[in-house]
Amino acid sequence: MSYDVYGVGNSLVDIQARVDDRFLELIGFQKGIMTLVDETAQRRVLDQLNGRPTNRCAGGSAANTVMGVVDFGGKAAYAGKTGRDEIGEFFLSDMRQQGVRIEVPPADGQSGTCVVLITEDAQRTMLTNLGVSATLCPDDINEEDIRQAKYVYVEGYLFTGEGPRAAALKAMELAKKNHVKVAFTVSDPFLIGLFRDRFWQLIEEDVDLLFCNVDEARALTGKEDPIECAQIIHKHAENVALTLGKSGSILMHRNEIIPVEGVPVQAIDTTGAGDMYAAAILYGITNGLSWPQAGHLASHAAARIVSQLGARLQRRFTRDEISQLLK
Asked: pTM for this one?
């Protein structure tokens, strides 16, 4: 079995709900950012949501991306830790039903959750309880699956814990050993504040394709202009995909700047936009698309995600749609 992408990330079940600003004030969390919370705090928020409509799906940044790769018609495997509880069983079942191979044995304890609170301005406030996903370790990384992949994709969120960080580094090390390319997403500007030097070391030594948004690129480089940021990163990483929100994105490949247009859309939820963008790029470059074509597909994929609730495509791109987009 060969794979386009082998993803490594935190296994979280996303629980999405629409709320107003008053609800955020009530629970006391800062709007528009991701906050790590303990089990007690997460339970308190879920209790407050009791009675409101919620949507649930397997999530986590890298999980969203590998699910996206499969949605486009690609093949993917995934390494992430779940608990032996109902939430963990839901996660594994959801991933496997979509066609993602995931064989990491479950652990005792509470599976990870991410409560995604979406306000009317399409901002998402994320409260993440990692649960047993934080116990992912190097033993959970499957060299045989990596050997059969074209890309290993690692999320920066893994670097907040010792075990997951070691698992991420092992996946990259095995990729290099087996001549498999490495894609890395820095995941969040706050991580750059914590791991800037470590991330730069990875970019310089291990990463073949770096995904970041403009805020992350500015935090990495200390520069303001997005093109200058992309060029600085490209001196160290073979390929760069830098997203600019509704303004599109910039791809860097073989010293060429490839501007990618944004797709005008009414945004209702930005959850997973970057994850789906990465999925389309990875699917494209592992399935014969040119970099401009992959970028074009990624722009449309991100636009479709932000125009719906949740990080999973409710309406997949058909073969005909993809063909039309690439003309």
From this structure: 0.91
